[in-house]
């Protein structure tokens, strides 16, 4: 009964593939095939053919992570299986047991995609925290102080959880918490405080300052793991919703809102680190005429095709978004103006050389692009407006070209030379 219900709920609610083994013999046969890499196993301690944890030991021997689901349980058994390194355990002692299994599996699967940063832990605490997190397949990074932690967050764009040890006298954990919120609001990083201080106000101070969770030392391994898995699962759900909300429905590139939110953070980071950055706006030439001539279906096809080529050319290194209509924004990280202009000109040539088919005939698509360097602290809108001004010059100058201050200086120099 349990196995059928669990399989149905895991497949329908979590979308995972489930293989059922009714006894030890079938378990051995499935594992021996080696045609599936299992993320985890839900195992009873008393399986037919394996009455005394043999199935659990077999799974551990084959590096398949087990979640124990059993009716035979007590303190001695609990300590025994936890010492073996199981992921979690659920006891068949209530109507909610199957729900607990589903929740636990969801948390465990989320942890496989979770990156955690541990900041300034004491040695003993580090070993315990890191060991428990790695057992759950978290990817763990350790920073020795707040400065290194911020450097890691700048360099790594997908940190999910930050654990702050608040007990070091020379470490201002609340100041680091405030700086994380100021710099990385759009990343939605979850921050957990860990402390063994006798001061009863440590937890409320941390939580009121914006912390997401607080765990008191010395902590129970079960409690620590459960809290972190719970936060990781919440984080992954929020990220999935945020990703869906950040995409343009037609082209599947980022939308205007995401470009402004993330672009501002990336520009701030570049300026803070003394790195080069450039911004560009691309406009599809004569797009209204194309819509009027061939219809909106072909117009949508052009937008999708241009987006596909831009994504292929820019990859994940630079930020690309559809700003609206036929306009796209591009933020070039670690590229100076000359390199960004060269990249944009390559894009322009590639698009022009790849016509699309409309009503059985090839239609050449050209674009105009304005590019501006990011050289100082200004409102993000101002950087984008500068690129927009150069876009206007590119269109005014005949379209199908890239324009920037470099082109403007070259034009002025040519005019001066001609006048002399």
UniProtKB/TrEMBL annotation:
Q: Which UniProt keywords apply?
A: Phosphoprotein
Q: What residues does the GGDEF domain cover?
A: 275-407
**Any coiled-coil regions, as ranges:** none
Which E.C. number(s) belong to this protein? 2.7.7.65
Q: Where is the Response regulatory domain?
A: 1-107, 115-232
PROSITE patterns linked to this entry:
GGDEF, RESPONSE_REGULATORY
- Write down a Pfam family by its short name: GGDEF
Reactions listed under catalytic activity = 2 GTP = 3',3'-c-di-GMP + 2 diphosphate
Sites of 4-aspartylphosphate modification: 44, 165
Q: Does the keyword Nucleus apply?
A: no
SUPFAM superfamilies documented for this protein: CheY-like, Nucleotide cyclase
Q: What is this protein called?
A: diguanylate cyclase
Native organism is Mycoplana rhizolycopersici
Lineage of the species this protein comes from:
Bacteria, Pseudomonadati, Pseudomonadota, Alphaproteobacteria, Hyphomicrobiales
């Amino acid at each position: 009964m349990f196995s059928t219900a669990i399989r149905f709920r895991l497949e329908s609610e979590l979308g995972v593939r489930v293989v059922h083994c009714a006894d030890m013999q079938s378990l051995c046969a499935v594992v021996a095939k080696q045609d599936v890499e299992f993320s985890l196993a839900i195992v009873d301690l008393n399986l037919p053919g394996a009455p005394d944890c043999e199935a659990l030991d077999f799974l551990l021997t084959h590096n398949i992570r087990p979640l124990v689901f059993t009716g035979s349980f007590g303190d001695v058994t609990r300590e025994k299986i936890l010492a073996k390194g199981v992921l979690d355990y659920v006891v068949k002692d209530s109507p909610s047991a199957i729900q607990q299994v589903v929740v636990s599996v969801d948390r465990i699967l989320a942890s496989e995609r979770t990156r955690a940063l541990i900041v300034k832990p004491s040695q003993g605490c580090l070993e315990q925290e890191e060991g428990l997190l790695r057992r759950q397949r978290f990817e763990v990074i350790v920073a020795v102080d707040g400065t290194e932690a911020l450097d890691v967050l700048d360099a790594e764009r997908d940190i999910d959880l930050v654990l702050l040890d608040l007990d070091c006298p020379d470490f201002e954990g609340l100041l680091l918490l405030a700086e994380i919120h100021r710099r990385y609001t759009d990343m939605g990083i979850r921050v957990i405080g860990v402390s063994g201080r006798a001061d009863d106000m440590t937890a409320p101070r941390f939580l009121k300052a914006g912390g997401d969770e607080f765990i008191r030392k010395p902590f129970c391994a079960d409690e620590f793991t459960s809290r972190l898995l719970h936060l990781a699962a919440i984080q992954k759900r929020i990220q999935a919703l945020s990703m869906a909300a950040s995409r343009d429905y037609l082209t599947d590139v980022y939308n205007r809102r995401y470009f402004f939110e993330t672009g501002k953070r990336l520009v701030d980071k570049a300026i803070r680190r003394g790195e080069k950055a450039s911004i560009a706006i691309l406009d599809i030439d004569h797009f209204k005429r194309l819509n009027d001539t061939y219809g909106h279906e072909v117009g949508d096809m052009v937008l999708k095709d241009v987006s596909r080529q831009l994504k292929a050319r820019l990859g994940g290194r630079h930020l690309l978004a559809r700003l609206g209509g036929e306009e796209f924004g591009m933020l070039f990280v670690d590229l100076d103006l000359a390199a960004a202009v060269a990249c944009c000109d390559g894009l322009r040539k590639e698009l022009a050389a790849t016509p699309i088919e409309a009503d059985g005939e090839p239609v050449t698509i050209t674009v105009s692009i304005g590019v501006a360097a990011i050289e100082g602290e200004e409102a993000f809108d101002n950087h984008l407006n500068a690129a927009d001004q150069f876009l206007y010059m590119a269109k005014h100058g005949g379209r199908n070209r890239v324009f920037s201050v470099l082109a403007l200086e070259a034009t002025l120099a040519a005019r001066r030379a001609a006048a002399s």
